[in-house]
Amino acid sequence: MNGVEGSSVTDVAFWVVSAIAIAASIMVVTLRDIFRAALFLALSFLAVAGLYILLRAEFLAVVQILVYVGAISILIVFAIVLVRDMPGGGKDNHLKVVAATVAALLGALAIFVSYNSDFTNLDALESSNADVAAALTGTYDLDASNAVGDEYEDQIAVAPPEGAEGTEIGIFSNSTGSIGGLFIRDFVLPFEAVSVLLLAAMIGALALLRQRGEES
Amino acid sequence: MTLENVLLVSSVLFAIGLYGALAKSNAIMILMSIEIMFNAVNIAAIAFSRFTVPAGLTDTPITVTQQAVQRALTGQMLSVFVITAAAAEVALGLALVIVVYRQRGTVDVTDLTEMSG
Amino acid sequence: MINEAGSWLIIGFPLASFVIIGAVIRPFFNRYAIVAGYLTILAVAISLGLSIFAFISVADAGGNIPFESREWLSFPGLVIPFGIMMDSLTVLMLITVAGVSLLVQVYGLGYMKGDKGYAKYFAFMSLFTASMLGLVLSRGVIQLYAFWELVGLSSYLLIGFWYTRPAAAAAAKKAFLMTRLGDFAFLLAILYIFTLGDDLLDIPHLYEAAQIGAIGATAATWAALGIFAGAVGKSAQFPLNTWLPDAMEGPTPVSALVHSATMVAAGVFLVGRFFPLFELSNEAMNTVALVGGFTAVFAASMGLVANDIKRVFAFSTISQLGYMFFAIGIGAYVAAFFHLFVHAWFKTLLFMSAGSVNHASGTFDMRYMGGLRKVMPFTYATTVIGGLSLAGIFPFAGFWSKDEIFAHAAEVDSPVGWIVLILGLTAAFMTAFYMFRVIFMTYHGKFRGGVDKENEDLRAAGEEIDEAHATARVHLAESPWTMVMPLLILAVAAVLAGYLTNPTAGYGIVDQHSFGEFMTENHQVFETHEAAVHAGAEPKFNYGIAFLSTLVALSGIALAYAMYQAKLISPANLTARFKPVHRILINKYYMDELYEDIIVRNIFYNRFAKRLASFDITILDGVNVQLASWTRRFSGVLGFIQDGQLQTYGAVASAGAVVAIVIFLFWA
Questions:
Q1: What is the architecture of the domain spanning A1-87?
Q2: Which of A64, C408, C454, C534 could form a disulfide linkage to C332, CB 3.0–4.6 angstroms apart?
Q3: Mean pLDDT for the stretch of residues C55-70
Q4: Measuring CA to CA, how many Å separate C639 from each of A92, A102, C23?
Q5: ipTM of the assembly?
Q6: Where are the domains of chain A?
Q7: Given CB atoms, is C648 within the 8 Å cutoff of chain A?
């Protein structure tokens, strides 16, 4: 595959999806009709899922669609229906101008920071294994066999260390499995903690909404 | 699609979400804006995961593969947990909104001012 | 030989008595309050015994027993010493104070019977005795000042003993405040002495420094004047004399002990204690002498016309103290303390006699007494002895002491000496006159009704009868033996004490000049024999002066006889003829009005204090109020931030985050 061509396709896709996400979010925060705003929110989530795919986080894209679009957006719509406050809708409060200024400033600062930071200059890796250190210095695209060209392929510091083969370390081509493995091995504690969190959330929601004696 | 561009998108989304969280008076609208902010953060994490490798390898002798996997996918792991937490949070948040609606008859946060100092 | 522990015990026993009475007897056993009296007498008796032992020890040791100086507080650059100073002046004062106190406590047993504050009285009396003993035993200047203040406090408590009487409470305050004025100057002098040298806060060191000439004449003048100001306050000399007549509001034994023999003598003691310092400065000595001489006449003149027997004696005390000061001012150290010693005994006697006649006639006003000699012979006899002693008639003690002062004054060949001699003789005439006026008015003639008649007259004049007058009774009989016995003992002392100086010859066990020699034995104070002699170690007897002073005294007595006994000259006519003079004297030269109305009320309160108060209210408070209102307004401005809206808080937090990031990016 031609790197340049691949790049431009990815780029165009990226900008289109980003535009959809941003536009949908703007609609969310500016519409007075809350129901329409909820729908635009779902659209925004979809766009973000697309963005995830472009960023080669396929597992997460699917999770995004399942959880955000499939569950959270529905939940929000249900809540809107239960709270029959339609006329009120998405009214603005007295902080409109201040909030707009602050948000704009914060966003501008973040953009400024991200454009002026040197992301290739990460700390030197202190490992006794020199090969590993050499292998992982700087930005590194481990999926050497990736069909979609990427300019960072030029920035591989050293060739992959000995004994390592492309398929073995093609993590990005199998992110689901890798993530699953990580859950079991390195992130097992947060995994368990998050399950406790979900349990607590469920119990809490039920406790909140149970009405004494009447229908819940 | 450079790292900076993705971060640009993330920042813009975050700013939009922040505006919504601060300037809207409907509680559900605020929750939706917060979800937008969560999404923005996730995008940023995943972007970093895609374009950089976190520093600080350990000295324990595990294979390059494992280390690389662990380091390279940290951003995505973060996103998984963020999504999970966001889901739990929005569920509970909406439950609270409904309880408040039942008690006060309104979800307009400007009418809920008992914590004034 | 007495040791240091024994010396501290001299203070310790009366102090313990105070604590026991105050903490145990009065709160819990007030019904057995008489135990408080016995306890006090026991404690003071033990102190007297120890004092006599100390006296013997000091005499054996040659005038001074050097004890150690201990550290009370020490800071870098300042060490405050304390300790015991046991020299001849100390033991003289110890015996005087302990002895007079013991007799007064015995007297008080009978006098204060029935008073509901009986235990409190003895507690305060114990405290006073302990403080006075501590004062004379002090070695460190700060220690001395502490006891000085304690003495003042005890005096305040005792004067205001019947505190429910407004006059008594006012008198106590007045006494305390006036002496405080003097004490302030004294404190300044102490601080000044400290600046002259680090170790000068220890009296023996001060003596050394004075004698080797380490203190300059001007420095000594300022220090001595400050110290003398303290003495002026405590001894009620002019111009701080107005508190003592008012202090007669206290019980009579208090007047007998505190305001005749001991506390007021503390001023003379103070000057004596710092004598080497005073000697360095001619100006200070002259000031002391002139103030003393002037006060002697000044006070005696007021005693000429007073009708309240205790007030006559109060003026007499001030006047006699004036004698002591002028003696010390002309350098007659021995004569001054001899007079102090002798005066203590007969003045206490006279006050006690005033208490006795009060018991008999119910009043202190001599116009309503009379003829009491038939009813109370012992009291009369002792009073006459005391009066003759006060007037300075041979062979009583007062003659010898007064005479020594005059002799010394005649020797000093300077204008100051002649001035004070004339003043002294004038005062002697007045003293004799007013003393015998008292005797004739009180004890001779017919009884004029006592308190009953006094109340009648007050009612007729439309005036209020206060509680004291209303509850008093006429009880024409001799006082109980507890009151008479001290009088007798004191009368004996009033006669015999004079022979201690023996200017003419030795009498049996007491050698010639023994007192003078004893007093000047302490080489720390009197380095050379010449200095001792100069101070009066070997007084010569000046027959000319003795004759002159006796003549003066006898003429005073004769005038009193003529006016009050033989009625040859009518007091009423004299009063009418010299009305303005009489008015000035009876109003105590209007000094009270000057102090209270003009200086305090007008100048201090109305002008000065009111101005300050208005400044405080308008300007200082005004500033505060303005600040408060500005703060309120400012807080109102910022109040919108805390409106209870979570979103406001969120906005502010985000804005803060923006600011922090900006600062971090561009400045840090």
A1: Up-down Bundle (1.20)
A2: C408
A3: 83
A4: 22, 20, 59
A5: 0.87
A6: 1-87, 126-182, 186-216
A7: yes
